Amino acid sequence: MAAYRSAPEVSRYQGWSSFSVDDAERLIEEMRVRQPGEPGWFQFALRDDRGALLGDAALYTAADGMAGKIGFTLAIPAQGRGLGKETVLALVAYAFEERNMRKLTAETDARNERSSAVLCHAGFCLEERREDVPFKDEYISELVYGLLRTNGR
């Protein structure tokens, strides 16, 4: 986790600039005592069929359990293979079908075209564009995507 999260190509649009082994160990320990669906963030590991770590995905659950936010991070070798969309669709299915959430949102740096494309392909719609959002050492434009649970889900 520390290796792929600290790669500049991966961390460029994320809230962290570096991610140490200590950071990874702390996050893993935090998740050991949490359960998915509890209020707050829960991090899922993404593994291939051999158990190799491909990335991670997160689901934030609001206090009322009806709304959530998602995020995802893929290691460089896992990018460009459709795993982002697969990950987002799995988060959506889990949030809507298992947790019975009503709405999901996702935020991304407007320059992160690949992340925006993944969200659009998974059915999310652009809801808002925020200008001049402080991010690391600069101000950026941020896109907010949303998806409502429909009767078919």
Protein architecture, described:
The protein is an alpha+beta fold. The protein has a single domain, classed as Aminopeptidase. It contains five helices and six strands; from the N terminus they run αααβββαβαββ. Strands 1-2-3-4-6-5 form a six-stranded mixed sheet, sandwiched between helices. Strand 2 and strand 3 form a beta hairpin. It is globular, with a radius of gyration of 15 Å. The model has no long low-confidence stretch (mean pLDDT 93).
List keywords for this structure.
5 helices, 35% strand, alpha+beta, six-stranded mixed β-sheet, 153 residues, 6 strands
Briefly, what is this?
With 153 residues, the protein is of the alpha+beta class. It is built from 5 helices and 6 strands. The chain has a 6-stranded mixed β-sheet with strand order 1-2-3-4-6-5, sandwiched between helices.
Which secondary structure elements does this structure contain, and how are they paired or packed?
Elements: H1 2-5, H2 8-11, H3 21-32, E1 40-47, E2 53-61, E3 67-74, H4 83-98, E4 103-109, H5 113-121, E5 125-135, E6 138-148
Parallel strand pairs: 3-4
Antiparallel strand pairs: 1-2, 2-3, 4-6, 5-6
Major sheet summary line: 6 strands, mixed
Name of the CATH superfamily? Gcn5-related N-acetyltransferase (GNAT)
Treating each run of at least 4 consecutive H or I residues as one helix, how many helices? 5
CATH architecture: 3-Layer(aba) Sandwich
Taking strands numbered 1, 2, ... along the chain, how are they ordered across the largest sheet?
Answer: 1-2-3-4-6-5
CATH class reads Alpha Beta
What's the gyration radius in Å? 15 Å
Please count the beta strands (DSSP E, at least 2 residues each): 6
Number of domains: 1
Q: What is the CATH T-level topology?
A: Aminopeptidase
Strand content: 35-45%
Distance between the termini: 32 Å
Kindly state the percentage of residues in helix: 25-40%
Secondary structure class reads alpha+beta
Write the H/E string, N to C: HHHEEEHEHEE
**Model regions low in confidence, pLDDT < 50 over at least 5 residues:** none
- Give average pLDDT, whole number: 93
Query: Can you tell me the overall shape?
Result: globular
